[in-house]
Every structure is written in structure tokens, then in C-alpha cells.
Amino acid sequence: MSAVTREAVEACLRQFTDPHLDQDPVSAGCLREVDIQGARVAVRLELGYAAGLFKNGWAQMLQMALENLDGVDSAQVQVDCVIDSHQGQAQVPALAGVKNVIAVASGKGGVGKSTTAANLALALAREGARVGILDADIYGPSQGIMFGIAEGTRPEVREQKWFVPLEAHGVQVMSMAFLTDDNTPMVWRGPMVSGALLQLITQTAWNDLDYLVVDMPPGTGDIQLTLAQKVPVAGSVIVTTPQDLALLDAKKGVEMFRKVHIPVLGVVENMAVHICSNCGHAEHLFGEGGGEKLAAQYGVELLASLPLSMAIRMQADDGKPTTIADPESQIAMIYQDLARKVGARIALAGKPAMPSIEISED
């Protein structure tokens, strides 16, 4: 029986690709420790993104592969998730209590941006992250409804300076709607809105968040630019539908983030296909392949493609979005994969990998 070497262990791990990082764990810099004690091997990996629903299966797969190595009697693989703070735009100060800010944006309204933001936040929380969501869509705030927060609920005020975010489904939630009457429209000019939102963001007492998801207003005007320039955003997600008009506006959103040096993590395509509930026939009501074309044109990833589904709408209206209303459904699994991909993209764009440690009995 030949002696087990670190090179053999690494070569074994390199055969497997993390589906969220699109790299093997060694090349991605996830390998932290290799402990070789005769025929026993112990490996520790560290993922830079929330992957609570993925890491155990990933560890088991790698363990089985290592135990098939010549000279290995038993193997142990430990996978930890450690979410670091990643730098946003230069010269923009960090938010207190927040490691990473994710902007969810769209070029136009009506494409499912707020629903995507809510399910993304909830999916990140299900993966084990500490998550908050800020409803920055000031003219049409909807996160309070989606999270089942009763109308008229107000946040506590701490030290006459800080708003304490509300909590629902394990996510910290803050919205301008919590400070105003739901039936009164916000008839404000752009500078007033920008100032109010910046005050809301910076004066909310976020409690040790790994990710803050910001549901941006639709469009690419003054409000969006102000937020993009004043809030330390680690990455942005563009939401669109396949139809040409939505894609045209989504392109403007991509260009806006690039001009203010915010990474575009990828594109989410909503309403990609409709499946008839009676006969099962699939129809592309809003066109086909639009999200893929947009992603290819700008060299970004199509992070998720979701169907036109009545369940998504009904569950969000009932205050329990799909991710928690039906967590084992196919649609919920798409949102979970989206959450892991978004976290992985932020981690890849962040800090360089730490060196790994080797321990052997020699």
C-alpha cells in the first residue's frame, strides 16, 4: 500500500467542481487544512458564501472520493461557511453592522424585482446567513406585505437616532412604508427621495448582517445613481423578463452599475415560460431566451430563470414567499441555487484566498 501524499489528496479534490463557484475547491482557494495520519485523511474546506443546504452533501461526495484513493482507509471532510466583508465602491464608507450589500434592480417596473429580492433574502437566510432587506422602492414599497408585516406596524427608535428593523421569517426588514401611511402616495421629488432613503439606510440599526439585500426602485434615474454612489454595494443583480422592451431597460441597468464601478453578479429572468395548469403545455408568453442573450452580451451569468407562476404571486401576496411557503418545491430550489450563486460571486470578487495548512505524521 502506497503512502498517501498531499499531492494525491489535492488531485482527488480537483476532479470535483463546486457548482456555485464553477471551480474545483483547490483552485477556488477553499482548501484550508490537510491532515494525513497514515491511512487516515482529514480535510477542511472553507466556503466564502452561505451554503447550509449544500455543504453536507458536498462534504459527503468529497469524502467518498478520498476514501477511494489508494492507501486511504478512512477520510473526513469538514466544510465551513465563513462570510467575509467585501469591499464596495472606493471612497464609500461601510455600513455599520453590514458585511455585504446586494442591490436587486430592474430597468422597469413589473418584472418581479421585489419578489426576487424577497425570495433571495429568505433563501440566503435558509442557507444559514444573517440577512436583512431594505425596501428602497419608495414609490411602491411592497416588502412589508411580502413578509407578512401587519399594516401600521412601526419600528422602535433607539437613542432618538436609530430605527430598529422589524423581523419576519428570520430576516431583518426595513421600509419607508413602515414610517408612512400605506394609503398615502409619496409625492416627492428626486432629491427628497434620495435624502430620505440615505437617512433610512444609514440610520437603521442593522444587527450583524452577512448580507443586506436592497430592493432598488425600478429605472436608472437620479435616485438609483445616488444610492449606487452612496451605499457600499458588493454586487448587483439585474431582474428582467424575456420581452424586448424589458431587456432594453435591463441593459440600461447593467450599464448604470458598470459606470459606478459596482460588479453585476448576473441576471435573473422572470416569467420565462408559462406551463398551462390544465394541459401542461409550455408557452413562452414574453419571448424566449432573452435573459441568456442579455447575459451573453454583457459577459455576465444568467443566475436563474423562473416560470410565470400563479403560486409565486399568491404566496408573496399572502406574506409567505415561495422560499418559505413551499421550501421543497422546484421553484424554491431555484431561489436557493440563486442565493448560493450570488454569495459565491461576491466571494470570488473579494479577498484573495488564504494559504492552506498541511499536517502529517512525518
From TrEMBL:
GO terms for biological process: iron-sulfur cluster assembly. Keywords: ATP-binding, Hydrolase, Iron, Iron-sulfur, Metal-binding, Nucleotide-binding. ATP binds at G107, K108, G109, G110, V111, G112, K113, S114. Residues 6-79 form the MIP18 family-like domain. It holds the Pfam family FeS_assembly_P. It comes from the Bacteria. GO terms for cellular component: cytosol. Gene3D superfamilies: Fe-S cluster assembly (FSCA), P-loop containing nucleotide triphosphate hydrolases. One of its GO terms (molecular function) is 4 iron, 4 sulfur cluster binding. PANTHER family: IRON-SULFUR PROTEIN NUBPL (PTHR42961). In the C-terminal section; belongs to the Mrp/NBP35 ATP-binding proteins family. HAMAP family: Mrp_NBP35 (MF_02040). NCBIfam families: PRK11670.1. Homodimer. Binds and transfers iron-sulfur (Fe-S) clusters to target apoproteins. Can hydrolyze ATP. This is Iron-sulfur cluster carrier protein. It comes from Ectopseudomonas mendocina (strain ymp) (Pseudomonas mendocina).
